[in-house]
Amino acid sequence: MVKYLIFLSIGILFGIFAPEINGVKKIKNILMSISVLCLLFFMGVGIGKDPDLKSKIANFGLNALVISSFSILFSIIVVFIMVRAFRRHSK
Amino acid sequence: MIFLMVIFTLLGIFTAQFGVLPDNLVEQSGSITEYSLYLLLLIVGYDIGRDKDAVIRLITKDKFAFLVPFGTVIGTLIGGLIASLFINLSANDSLAVSAGFGWYSLSAVIITKMKSADLGSIAFLANVFRELLSILLIPIIAKRVGPYVSIVPGGATTMDTTLPIIEKYAGESAAIVAFAHGFILSALVPVIVPIFL
Q1: Which chain A residue's Cα is nearest to B70?
Q2: How far apart are CA B185 and CA B191, in angstroms?
Q3: In the A/B pair of chains, how many CB contacts fall below 8 A?
């Protein structure tokens, strides 16, 4: 966790102090797309390398899907209400 | 891009599951994920540093956004509790699984150790599903509902895996909040999960 904070901070400092160079934005966007796809692919590999994955999904997939769907749905509802309340309050 | 992101994730899962990938790539998947993440954090940080307006807006007008993690915790636990009405699990077990906030590796380990391998498997899958659904939902919610609400589905993963996706679709202010959101939720997983077991 601390490592992530260090890398993010180094990036922020670069963003603040590095001079504007032509072409950086384009390279950065390409690099970002490639790294995101690479990250997601290998995150998938990390999940898929579990030899019991198929039997886990067969036995527990539905329960797991119900819990994750409800967790996501209600957290969205709570935060949506919260953001609206704050926006109204600050107007 | 959303389509590509989902395809690449599923490709990773299937190629590893069906043994299509070379063994050394599978073994190195953790390290490759970690290094990709470092590079992404540098880029996201650079974008935040470049966009001073986003930082100023967040500190002046949108300070409330730093309360989003607490809304995510409350909403997730309400969801976990309601889910237990529809499945064959006790309220406590369902709450413990939902309190993984998408951090599938840690929550599955804690639950397997403290309760059972079966519930650990449910925790692993439920939190994997949460992460996969987030990849799909973040762009849609950012466009239709708003930047700060789009952070929510990602749970604890918004400081790493889903952070670049949030930055891309919800902007720099949301990325700053997302990092704090992920940081707080990640710290809470080992604290909240055991409470319910």
Answers
A1: A79
A2: 10
A3: 273
